[in-house]
Write a structure and sequence with these properties.
alpha/beta, 6 helices
Length: about 240
């Protein structure tokens, strides 16, 4: 059993759909969701190291992958979307601003896709990246790097924008129901999820008094606290082709 397989989290879901979270040691999180009746599935943010475990679950559960969703152009790891597209014939889904040539379906804010009776909704959530979308499911939102537990994604990398990040935190996530579960794209402390209510109350990045203060912090202070991104050039080159 691989390290990734030991870190698979399955949850009970409203509406009875299949939902699993995958984690690799660096803290990257990916997801598998499926309609329990039709077995149509979506693979979300597959990272190279978790791709095998994801496919094992697809076969074990007799799922039928229909979509591979990359929430944005990842800068810290190589996406397995291209490889999984070849193995499953599923269509790759990304925001319309994503540069990758493998994208089959380009979405914008408010677009929806269906897996049988399960509806997937996309909310545009730029800031960490210009092409970032959050994925809304019944009772859950997959926030990628736009909102992580107790923080948010950095905005000092290519296509990051602190002003857009402030809008995303306040006007996109800030207006959604408090009981919506937050399932992020990264976590480095072994946590699986939070709720929007908890993040609104306790996340320092959602509690700045003004846009100017937030932008100044993200542009000037936050980068000093962060480590260099491993494989930045390699990941961007692979994921943008």
């Amino acid at each position: 059993m691989t390290d990734t397989e030991e870190r698979i989290v399955s949850t009970e879901t409203p509406g009875g759909y299949i939902f699993e979270q995958f984690r690799v040691e660096r803290g990257c999180l990916g997801y598998l969701v499926a309609d329990a009746e039709t077995r149509f599935a979506a693979i979300i943010d597959p990272e190279e190291e978790m791709a095998e475990a994801m496919m094992d679950e697809v076969f074990r559960r007799n799922l039928r992958p229909k979509y591979i969703i990359d929430t944005h152009t990842h800068a810290d790891h190589i996406s397995a979307a291209r490889d999984l597209k070849l193995k499953t014939c599923a269509k790759v889904v990304m925001h319309e601003k994503a540069p990758a040539s493998i994208v089959d379906i380009k979405v914008v804010d408010g677009d929806r896709l269906r897996l049988g009776s399960l509806e997937i909704k996309f909310r545009y959530a730029p800031g960490h990246a210009k092409d970032l979308v959050a994925v809304v499911l019944p009772g859950k939102i997959l926030t990628a790097d736009a909102l992580i537990i107790g923080s948010c994604g950095r905005t000092d990398l290519l296509n990051g924008n602190a002003t857009q990040q402030y809008f995303t935190l306040g006007c996109v996530f800030g207006t959604m129901p408090d009981d919506l579960e937050v399932w992020p794209g990264h976590d480095y402390k072994g946590r699986t999820h939070s709720t929007l209510g908890d993040e609104k109350k306790n996340n320092p990045k959602m509690r700045f008094a003004s846009e100017d203060e937030f932008v100044e912090y993200m542009d000037l202070e936050n980068p000093k606290k962060l480590s260099d991104v491993c494989q930045l050039a390699e990941s961007l080159k692979a994921n943008m082709v």
